[in-house]
Design brief:
Length: 94
């Protein structure tokens, strides 16, 4: 590692005390289209909070942003049915 730089995932895992799998998942989120990233980070849609992480990991595997958008809309629609069933709002929405 040179001054202020990390040369790979393995040194990063030690520096952040995280597993390499988790680091790769986080880095994969950068492959999502900007509009989906914005939706995840800034939206208060309860559907996003109900969506399991593995669904996002599947979405990351799609390279085409237009296809990602179609899949994302389908996921939001799928989990909107579950949001109607949710009794307690997410504490993250407060």
């Amino acid at each position: 590692m040179s001054a202020g730089k990390i040369d790979g995932v393995k040194p990063l895992t030690g520096h952040l005390n995280m597993s390499h799998v988790r680091i790769n998942q986080i880095m994969g989120m950068a492959l999502l289209s900007p509009s989906i990233q914005e939706d995840i980070l800034l939206s208060d849609k309860i559907e996003i909070f109900l969506m399991p992480e593995y669904k996002l990991n599947e979405l990351v595997r799609e390279a085409d942003w237009q296809k990602q958008a179609q899949i994302w809309q389908a996921l939001l629609l799928e989990y909107s049915g579950q949001s109607a069933k949710a009794k307690t709002p997410s504490p993250y929405l407060a």
